[in-house]
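Protein: Monosaccharide ABC transporter substrate-binding protein, CUT2 family
Species: Friedmanniella luteola
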Amino acid sequence: MRPRLVLRTALASAVLLSLAACGGGGGDAAEPAASGASSSAAGAAGGTIAIITVDPSNPYWKAETDTAVAEAEKLGYQTTTNAHENDPETQNSLIETAINDKVKGVVLDPAGADESVAAVQKLVDAQIPVVLVNAEISKTGLAKAQIVSNNAQGAVAGAEAWAEAMDYKGTYVELLGKPSDNNAQVRSDGYKSVISQSPDLKKVGEEIANWDRQEGQEKMESLLSKNPDIDGVIAGNDEMALGAINALKEAKKLDQVKVLGFDGNQDAADAVAKGEMVATVLQPIVEGTTKAVEQLNGVLTNGQTGVPDEKQAIDCVLITKDNADKLDNFVLSE
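Structure follows.
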C-alpha cells in the first residue's frame, strides 16, 4: 500500500484566502429560538444580539445557532435568531430589520462571500458591530472578526484518508456544495490536490447538490444511472454524503463504494462508526461560534475583540472509526 499523502502544511498556509461552511446530522442540543423570536435572558440589560444563520433545520447550523444563543445569554444579552437560507435578499432584509430594531451587535453566517459585502457594510454604516462565523466575505475591514474552519486543511486530511481507503485506484464521483459559498470550491480544490497525485483515481462525474441531503440522494441516483460501477464518492459536506449513502443503499451498492463526508455531524459520525462512510471532517463550529460571541462581547464592552487578526481559522479534525464514538454534537471529547 502506498504511503499516505502529506499535504496539510502546504494547504494550511493558504487557508486565509478562503475559509469555512455547512452541515448535517443528529444531535441532542436544545432547540434554537424560532425564527424572529426573542429570548429573554437574565442579563437582559446587555441589550440584544441578532444571530443570523443559514438554515437551523440542518444540524450544523442548528449547532451554530444553539451555541450563539447560549453563549450570548450567558453573557447577559437577549437574542433574536433568523435564517436567510443562503438567499442574499433575505439576508439584506434581516439585517435591515436588525438595524431598525437597534440591536447592539450581530453574529452572521453570511450568504455568499461577494453577495454579503453590502449587507455587512449596512451594519458598519449603522455603527452596529458584526462578527462573521463559519464563512467569510470577500472584503476585510468591515466585520470585527471572521472566524472560520480551515477548510483547505480539512479537505486534505479527508482526501488522504479516503484515497488510502480506495487503495489509490478506482472511479469516483463528486457532490459539490452551493456555488455561491466559497467553501464549496475550497473543499473541492483541497480534495483535488490530494487525489490528483494518484493517477489511477479517475473522476467520472460530478453534480451540485447544494449542501442538502435530499438533493444529494437525487443527484447520486442520477450519477449511479450513468456510472453504475463506481468505487467512491467524495462530498463537500455530510448532508450530501448521507444522501449519497441512502442512494447507494437503495441500489444495494454501499458495500462496494467508499464515501467521504465533511462537517462532522452526528449522523455522519454514526455512519463512520458503522463503516458506511470512510471518514468525515469535523468543523469545530461550537468552538468557532463561542469565539464569535466572545469577541463580539469584547467589542461591545471595551471596543476590541481581544485578538490581533480579523480573519481567524480553526483547524478541522479527521473523524474515523478510531474516534467517531468520541464525537457528540460537533464536540470531540479527549
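Remarks: The longest strand covers residues 201-208.
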